[in-house]
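D,D-heptose 1,7-bisphosphate phosphatase
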Amino acid sequence: MFTSLSQGNFSAMKPPGPALYDAVLLDRDGTLVEDVPYNGDPEKVRPLPGAREALDRLRAAGVRLAVVTNQSGLARGYFTERDMHAVHARIEELLGPFDHWAICPHDDTDGCACRKPAPGLVHEAARALGTAPRRCVLVGDIGRDMAAALAAGATGILVPTPVTRPEEVAEAPAVARDLPGAVDEILRRARAVRPVVPRTGRAGTVLVVRSDSAGDVLVTGPGIRAVAAGAERVALLCGPRGRAAAELLPGVDEIIEWPLPWIDGSPEPVDPDDMRRLTARLAAVGAEEAVVFTSFHQSALPLALLLRMAGVPRISAISDDYPGSLLDVRHRVPVGVPEPERALSLAAAAGFALPAGDEPVLRLRADLPARAVARPAGDYLVVHPGASVPARACPPERCAEIVAALAADGHRVLVTGGPGERELTARVAAAGGTDVGGTTDLAGLARILAGARCLVVGNTGPAHLAAAVGTPVVSLFAPTVPFGQWAPYRVPTVRLGDAGAACRDTRAARCPVAGHPCLSGVDPARVVTAVRRLAPG
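Predicted structure tokens:
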């Protein structure tokens, strides 16, 4: 790669605690300047409207900036390296200095690791800026930019132009109208996870709540850790489906398992006696305050009422509905924010923040329960065909074809699943994998995933478990819920599946379209390519 480095002074004061992002990486043509094909002439450089002001806002916030750009015109001989540097000097003259330029000089036929959608430029820029890809945002105008960001574990924000294809917009984790709008979102999200007024002392006992499935509990982990950093003791109220995940979270001192009929997908009728018992149990915690974490389509208010009846004096929750006197801190979050950041922003609104040494990522306890199985030896991939919500599972026959394709590419494939999925895992593994379905609990699955080169999975709990142990994910993502909100968080990812399918944003539990086309059309060859991108070697 050709690189040039410009130095700047970015010593702006930052509030205490870890920042969400260290750096913003920007595509060049169509994002910073008008797209002039194969431009080697500085006189043709035209900044896009508002670009200088937007970049200066990032500089003022202490964010480092880099350009990550494919320049195949070098390989094709349309301009020289000297011409390119003259163009870049003109861009810096008009838009201000960048801390680093990361440039791929290759053509698509060269098979390099740097040309977007490969993640090489993102990795290079992060190294040059002294940070990690997960602490970077990449802003670009086409799908290649977003794919490179995801494959590196960075955040991606798409700024469409007339040449951006509709399917690229549908697949993007986040979309902004223009570069100033993308900067607005970057700075808003960074502010949201830090308390406006940090606490001066530690709280006593705090009750935190996330009553949902294992994946939902896992993505709430950073918010729970933030509360734990500012409290003497943390009790977690969760449902039966989230209990195993709750046992893996750092910062939790006590777990209260109780199904909530306004949260569970298949609830029992509301039992007044059960609600009275729950209220008494909540009162017995002796919590000074409660932080009620919910997903974007759930209401915190029924539980807030019980917490008031239990005598909890301070309650914080996200609520678009008018809460009356049920909440002391009523927080609001825009649609599309990643669930871990959504939880962190509620913790921040309640006055809690992650400590300086704790990054805003998913994490598990260092001491996994003793019953967890040992990590398998050797090199392997994992395919997890099941999902807690049927609409999010890739059809078994397609999963079997994926296993066969991966095995044919020389990979050892383990097929995982829960105790109730043994028939499924046996069917899928028969295509060339090793069936380990039903042989371990969630903690054991975490150890299996921690040793895997990559996980192939739908939008379900194990995807977030992989993110928590740092394992790359090929995400077979049904678009029934927003990808930007539920994608594996801050871990290298490739998204596959039809993002514009008719089921998009329906939140359907069972596929409303015959044949499950959003995932049944996944090409096994593309899964093999995705694994090569995420886990080369």
